[in-house]
């Protein structure tokens, strides 16, 4: 791996670390892997508001399924 590639990877990791820290401060509940996936999707053109709506809907579905399992 060239020095330029190494710098690029380090920069990307630092950016993800910063985004994760912000995510934690905002209590988003996203782990690093999920956050990285969301960032990648947005970089590839996914509408951020649509992605946020999908994440929220999935959380509602998970909560509903968990509540149903408890009953």
UniProtKB/TrEMBL annotation:
<dbReference type="GO" id="GO:0051415">
    <property type="term" value="P:microtubule nucleation by interphase microtubule organizing center"/>
</dbReference>
<dbReference type="GO" id="GO:0033566">
    <property type="term" value="P:gamma-tubulin complex localization"/>
</dbReference>
<keyword id="KW-0963">Cytoplasm</keyword>
<dbReference type="InterPro" id="IPR022214">
    <property type="entry name" value="MZT1"/>
</dbReference>
<dbReference type="GO" id="GO:0031021">
    <property type="term" value="C:interphase microtubule organizing center"/>
</dbReference>
<dbReference type="GO" id="GO:0090307">
    <property type="term" value="P:mitotic spindle assembly"/>
</dbReference>
<keyword id="KW-0206">Cytoskeleton</keyword>
<comment type="function">
    <text>Required for gamma-tubulin complex recruitment to the microtubule organizing center (MTOC).</text>
</comment>
<dbReference type="GO" id="GO:0044732">
    <property type="term" value="C:mitotic spindle pole body"/>
</dbReference>
<dbReference type="GO" id="GO:0005819">
    <property type="term" value="C:spindle"/>
</dbReference>
<dbReference type="GO" id="GO:0000931">
    <property type="term" value="C:gamma-tubulin ring complex"/>
</dbReference>
<protein>
    <recommendedName>
        <fullName>Mitotic-spindle organizing protein 1</fullName>
    </recommendedName>
</protein>
<dbReference type="Pfam" id="PF12554">
    <property type="entry name" value="MOZART1"/>
</dbReference>
<comment type="similarity">
    <text>Belongs to the MOZART1 family.</text>
</comment>
């Amino acid at each position: 791996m060239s020095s330029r590639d190494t710098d690029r990877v380090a920069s990307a990791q630092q950016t993800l670390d910063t985004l994760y820290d912000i995510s934690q401060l905002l209590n988003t509940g996203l782990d690093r892997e999920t956050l990285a996936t969301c960032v990648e999707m947005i970089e590839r053109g996914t509408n951020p508001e649509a992605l946020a709506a999908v994440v929220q809907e999935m959380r509602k579905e998970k909560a509903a399924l968990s509540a149903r399992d408890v009953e």
